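To start, an entry.
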Amino acid sequence: MQNETPAINVMTVLRIGAVLLLLGACLKVILPFTGALIWAAIISISVWPWYLRLAHLIGHRRGLAALLVSSLLMLSIAGPISLMAVKLAHVLPDAQSLETLSHAPLPPPPAWLERIPLAGDKLTQFWLSVQGDLPGMLEKLRPTVNKVALWILEQGASVGFSLLEIILAIVLSGFLLTKGDELWDGANLTLSKLGGSPAGDLAEVVARTVRSVSNGVVGTALAQTILCVIGLLIAGVPGALALGFLCFVFAVAQLPTLLVWLPAAGWVFYTGDNAYGVFLLLWGFLLVNTVDNVLRPLLISQGAQMPLIMIFMGVIGGLLAWGVIGLFIGPTLLAVALTLYRHWLGEAEHPAG
């Protein structure tokens, strides 16, 4: 019997090594699609109740319901990001070209510039010096402008890659919806195998957490963005769609949206249209900010009970890790991790039996 022990140990090591090798190979294959797969799962869990209602309304045709939901997500999410990418493509050539600006005459300094306290005289003198040698000034700025153009190129490539990930995630979510019942049963069985009977309700807890964060963060940001774009269009602010996308990013990142519409209102005042400037200020403070202050705490508090600082960390960390798609993945993953930790603490305080 003593001679058989080394052989048994060798076979065990070989089996473990083969399993680890298989897992490593699978991980390497799936790794490029990790972000898209995670977000596809988040989308599927978030829209699952609406998907079931739609399938019921159209005669329990789940395949058609999944197609309709995916098409709506394409229009509402991938569409605006595509428009943003097109805007960047149009802005880039203007950012790169200084030749046209060098031949354009610079107007005299405005009268109000000299009346600025403390810095008025210096700003006027600087304006006059630039007016006298505009080509030379632009030539000094050329290295900086080239760096800015390169940065815009990199951001455009990042947005393009994120757009492909978003499209892939939406397509995958359609497939996940059609197989939702089977995947749900598999998730419950897996959690029961890993955690035993106390983990029986864990899948439902995680699903509620994902829905609350998705609705609270993304839903509130979408509502703010729609209101912001409507206000910008009414006030006649150029580039309203691009500013709307920026507003959406700020809102998801838990940053104040007034960073977008307040400078826009200042631009409207600068153009001399005071009535629309006042309108945009009232629209921003009374509607855009009110939606943020009312909807977000209500929707998030219903499920995740997640501190806003963790949502901010999730958004910024997700953005750094996965790009634009990380805006949606980061806070959801942290919320799920926090929920699992609290569930574990609850089981530790009240052990089964």
Residues 32-178 form one domain. Residues 247 and 259 are 8 Å apart (CA to CA). The chain has a mean pLDDT of 76. Residues 134-178 form the longest helix (45 residues).
